[in-house]
């Protein structure tokens, strides 16, 4: 075993999103979000109104069962719990002046439970759930007006919870707007009709809003730490051909740009070149440039897979289920959903991010989606998910080794620590959790909770601060 250990105070936990677990889509004054009309996730166009086949409308009923679920997280020993606040619970349309008190009160209750169990909240302000009204009336983040609406929303959160929440993330996977403009940017214009000019202007508006939220948090919640959140995906050259190496570098630039702005406070030269070559002229004000200088305290990210890139058009095959494109790596195995499994890529990525930005890092999503089977063992229902244990073990070994390399890593929250509705396909059969939820893709099920084998594994891992990890064979 390596002599490297996880630091004292390392934040072990799990991660979720409001639209994937809360349910109660129309209760206590909540307005509709884009997710309420996306019954097939990103694989099909939205509907005009919520439909009965949208599993997210009920999800796993965390809205009523949050105390039960948080108690299970505490039983595992969670030090932190990442959840998002549903924007349309606080501002039902998104453009109101005053927040919905019933929505604020719900998250007060969630925070009460977390505090009771000594679990640190890690809050995502906007996680793929732009209010539907903002999407339809303003075309989402294409409109500069959303910067002001988002600031009003952030102000309500910081004023209400600023003394209770230490860690905030401004936007979930902000770079995903390049590939999923409706889900990520609330842009109602169909992707195939959206111009690059409008897409990049929307990106600029989100980046300005994120920096402005960072500035506002420092005024209203000075003890808080504000982070950005990225999809992290190492991109390797498919061959040693220098043309492939350059193609991989350019593909990584598309994702690095979002972190560079958050960490350095200005657009990098390679990004400005991309705009010039595309003939894009962004509306950037002097005030925007000043606001962007409000850089984040830490960088958080999701990590599920790596990809390859090539300059050879004949070899540009897309990996199954891969939101960001890329070429499958012929040396790696894949999950049931075609996501290539690469623990070493996490160590590479952590070193790259640390060396590039010199900001503390936080792994806020990582996990294995699989079709779990509920079985009975010694009279108890469970899932024998050794495949998940192996996946998490190997990725955490890579994270541990990155710490040994000198990386400042704040914590690790597994994605979907309790089974929830998939963002990409809106299925429940794609399960990530330590806790099995009895609900199926057709909407049937009791919603009862059952501990999987990985539940006890993670509990022991947290209790030992990572000492129970085993080196991959």
Automatic annotation (TrEMBL):
GO terms for cellular component: cytosol. The keyword Secreted does not apply. GO terms for biological process: carbohydrate catabolic process. The keyword ATP-binding does not apply. PROSITE patterns: GLYCOSYL_HYDROL_F1_1 (PS00572), GLYCOSYL_HYDROL_F1_2 (PS00653). Keywords: Glycosidase, Hydrolase. InterPro entries: GH, GH_1_N_CS, Glyco_hydro_1, Glyco_hydro_1_AS. The active site is at residue 365. Belongs to the glycosyl hydrolase 1 family. This is 6-phospho-beta-glucosidase.
